[in-house]
């Protein structure tokens, strides 16, 4: 069975990027027959998607899509650091959604055959996630080759 990890960073409202990630996850999880194993990890402003009872200006919300993914058995995790930064850690979440950790994301990345983000997809032989607040300090301590712009070569 193919394993796919979808990572969403975009806020649930204000653009269609979060919606697009949810639609893809739902389509993959709902495949008849040999459906892939899908995992969803919400980071940055996407973490607020896990709060129940939200509606946009037109009276619609994304909670139903999240609940459908939960019914399909898709694990949905929030980045703990992101949730703490937004005051979400102690708030009730949509049933079936939980707070995850960076080690859990790392493990899901290693287990996935494919990782899908808003920027595209990639084979998961090696995908390096650098935490935004401490990533550069960590990267400075390695011997990994860097480009003139300071990125991994």
Describe the structure.
The protein has helices at 17-29, 63-71, 80-85, 102-111, 135-140, and strands spanning 3-8, 37-42, 76-79, 97-100, 114-117, 120-123. It has 153 residues and is of the alpha/beta class. Helix 2 links the parallel strand 2 (37-42) and strand 3 (76-79). Helix 1 (17-29) packs parallel to helix 2 (63-71). The chain is globular, with a radius of gyration of 16 Å. The model is unreliable at 129-134 (pLDDT under 50).
- Tell me what portion of residues adopts beta-strand conformation: 15-25%
Mean pLDDT over the residues: 82
Q: Count the helices. How many?
A: 5
End-to-end C-alpha gap: 32 Å
Question: Structural class, from secondary structure content?
Answer: alpha/beta
Considering DSSP H and I runs of 4 or more, what fraction of the residues is helical? 25-40%
Shape: globular
Neighbour order of strands in the largest sheet: 4-3-2-1-5-6
| Strand and helix order | EHEHEHEHEEH
- The tally of strands reads 6
Q: Which stretches are low in confidence, meaning pLDDT under 50 for 5 or more residues running?
A: 129-134
Largest sheet: 6 strands, mixed
The rounded Rg comes to 16 Å
